[in-house]
Amino acid sequence: MASTSRETLSPVSTSVTVESSCFKSVTLKASTSVETLSPIPTPSIKSQRRYNRKKQSSEILTTTPMKERLLETEMRRDIKRKKLESKEKNKNVRKKLYEENELETEELEEIEGERNEDDEDICLVCGDGSKKTEHWFQCQICTKWAHALCSGWDTAEGYVCDFCDK
């Protein structure tokens, strides 16, 4: 029968002799109490976590204060969502503008790069033939070529030679 009071146990003296083929003969003496071998456990201190949650309460959802809180939280969510959407739109607009600029430069390079298959062309203005490595502009009307320096234009876009302009 188990008792609820603590009883102090006296040390028990025993001696045990162990003999085995693997071990030498060893004599163990135990003159210690059971409490020193296996002390009574003490409860550990629990670390308490505190959660920063709002306490829930029961309320009627259609009451004015509760309605106002719900509307306020919904408005905050809408504002955040609109901000994110506007950022995405701005990002997409910038991306589209960048892509359009890339396409325009590619088209201009194609316009400037279109020339006859010959190694040399003759400039409309100076009449000099030169290699394809120089920048050339093509007239939009007569489709003849002129050096970029001879034409007096900054870009090939919309270039019309002096002969077609008259």
Automatic annotation (TrEMBL):
TM spans, by residue? none
InterPro entries according to UniProt = Znf_FYVE_PHD (IPR011011), Znf_RING/FYVE/PHD (IPR013083)
Looking at the record, which segments are called Disordered? 32-62
Positions the record marks as coiled coil are: 76-121
Family matches, as Gene3D superfamilies: Zinc/RING finger domain, C3HC4 (zinc finger) (3.30.40.10)
Enumerate the UniProt keywords alphabetically: Coiled coil
Superkingdom in the source lineage: Eukaryota
SUPFAM superfamilies in the record = FYVE/PHD zinc finger
- The question of whether Coiled coil is a record keyword is answered with yes
What's the protein name? Zinc finger PHD-type domain-containing protein
